[in-house]
Design brief:
Distance between the termini of chain A: 32 Å
Number of helices of chain A: 9
Structural class of chain B: mainly alpha
CATH architecture of chain B: Orthogonal Bundle
Helix content of chain A: 25-40%
Order of helices and strands of chain B: HHHHHHHHHH
Oligomer: heterodimer
Number of domains of chain B: 1
Number of helices of chain B: 10
Number of strands of chain B: 0
Strand content of chain B: under 5%
Radius of gyration of chain B: 22 Å
Radius of gyration of chain A: 18 Å
Order of helices and strands of chain A: EEEHEEHEHHHEHEHEEHH
Strand order of the largest sheet of chain A: 6-7-8-3-9-10
Distance between the termini of chain B: 54 Å
Shape of chain A: globular
């Protein structure tokens, strides 16, 4: 369970997050949407300790991130993250990208790590690309490798930061399919995305953020069909 | 009026002069390679410390880089050779001064430390060209800072900065000629020695120039092969 309790964050004197309050139960899929600059990505980075916050508290499985004794490296092993621009290691093959962390962090043998990487490539549908370098993969394939890289650590949570925003339209679905399958298998997911189809299919809750605040929250029906706030209505008019 | 100088290119292969140049070349190669090993390993280390999250390590690394790259190499070489042994006290200093071939070791050491500061700066440029999200992506898989640099960021940065590193590797052979000022008998020293014995300095210097040129082109060729082997697919590089 991830508990976010009235978290605020500043970059110097600019406030990027204001009193964010949210609880994500195991097995849930939460979709975060909102205009750019609303603090969605920053919120994700606070949850796995890549960015510090100044007020409030984030508790992951009972462990507080503000506690100086918390080992953030250990924490991140359980929280996978997928980035907008994939961020694969360009000098390594798909297989090496996926097997690196299991080998170095989990201390798996190369043989076991590569076996696991192959299984994951199978799962995301591109086992034939094991020896390809990121530059020789399409955007959709790169993102699927990136998802496999996160899954290789067998995380309890997965966070997605606009995973399809940098993709050509015809490649979006192949990535969404992997994400939908993951959500249906019971993975706890936190996704920053504007993909309505994805939200409709798997989102338990949708959070709408603007200017660092949660403006509105609800189920797919509530939010997309019947938004309450003016800001959300305006936003939905733009993206629909 | 004829040209008063009597050319004698034979001096370049007549013995012992031809052998002197070859001995000089061998010494230049040894100094260059050994200094490069120091420069590369220490330079990567210092360059990495400059971007770590720990303030004190950053400070030390920055101080090192600024001291070593802002003082002329000749002055550094003189310092290590003449003042260096004194740092260890009178007794130990005297013993160090009696080491056979001290000037040779000092040349390698001084050249290595000087070039390390330059390698460190290239490393920093390499690190800066890697996006913030790339670092975060590595950390998000649970790797520690050390693992992140060791397995992903340093190998990536080294590939980005291979061209300037080639230049540094070349420069280390050229700078090794300055070691003649403390009596190291490398190529330049030997060409002067031939001049002193035969008064055919022009031929000897031309010979030395030619040897440097061949050496440099060989280094470029070797680095080209390394660059091609470790080239990141999809990045611009030589074909």
């Amino acid at each position: 369970m991830i508990e976010i309790k009235t978290v605020s964050k500043w970059f110097d004197d600019f406030q990027v997050l204001t009193d964010i309050h949210e609880t994500i139960e195991r097995g849930q899929t939460v979709v975060i949407c909102g205009p750019s600059g609303s603090g969605k990505s920053t919120l994700l980075r606070c949850i796995n300790g890549l960015e510090p916050y100044q007020k409030g508290e984030i508790i992951v499985d009972g462990v507080s991130l503000s506690d100086p004794r918390t080992n953030l490296y250990k924490l991140r092993e359980n929280i996978g993250m997928v980035f907008q621009r994939f961020e694969l290691y360009p000098h390594m093959t798909a297989l090496q990208n996926i097997s690196l962390a299991p080998m170095k962090v989990r201390k798996l043998s190369r043989e076991k790590a590569e076996k696991k990487a192959m299984d994951l490539l199978e799962r995301v549908g591109i086992p034939d690309k094991a020896d390809a370098y990121p530059a020789n993969l399409s955007g959709g394939q790169q993102q699927r490798v990136a998802i496999a890289r996160s899954l290789a650590m067998e995380p309890k949570y997965m966070m997605f930061d606009e995973p399809t925003s940098a993709l050509d339209p015809e490649m979006i679905q192949e990535v969404l399919d992997v994400m939908i399958a993951l959500a249906k298998e019971g993975m706890t997911m936190l996704c920053v995305t504007h993909e309505m189809g994805f939200a409709r299919e798997v989102a338990d809750e949708i959070i709408f953020m603007d200017f660092g605040k949660i403006v509105e929250r609800g189920t797919y029906e509530e939010f997309f069909k019947n938004p309450k706030s003016e800001r959300a209505k305006e936003f939905l008019k733009q993206i629909l | 009026m004829g040209f008063a100088y009597d050319f004698d290119w034979g001096v370049l292969w007549r013995q012992p002069y031809g052998m002197w140049l070859l001995e000089g070349l061998w010494l230049t190669i040894k100094i260059g390679f050994l200094a490069w090993i120091i420069a590369l390993s220490f330079g990567i280390f210092i360059g990495t410390l400059r971007v770590t999250p720990w303030r004190w390590l950053r400070f030390i690394a920055t101080a090192y880089t600024e001291v070593f790259r802002n003082i002329p190499f000749l002055v550094q070489l003189f310092f290590w050779y003449y003042a260096g042994p004194m740092v260890f006290g009178q007794h130990l200093g005297r013993q160090i001064n009696q080491i056979m071939g001290l000037n040779y070791y000092v040349a390698i050491f001084a050249l290595g430390l000087y070039t390390a500061s330059r390698v460190a700066e290239h490393m920093r440029a390499g690190f800066a060209s890697i996006s913030r999200d790339q670092y975060q992506a590595v950390l998000s898989t649970g790797m520690t800072q050390y693992q992140m640099y060791r397995y992903v960021i340093i190998p990536y940065a080294l590939r980005i900065i291979t061209p300037p590193l080639t230049t540094e590797f070349l420069t280390i052979f050229k700078n090794s000629s300055i070691a003649m000022t403390i009596g190291v008998a490398e190529i330049t020293f030997m060409s002067y020695r031939i001049d002193a014995e035969t008064f055919h300095g022009l031929e000897a210097t031309t010979g030395a120039m030619f040897i440097y040129l061949i050496l440099g082109l060989t280094v470029v060729r070797i680095m080209g092969i390394i660059e091609a082997k470790f080239k990141i697919p999809g990045m611009i590089g030589r074909e």
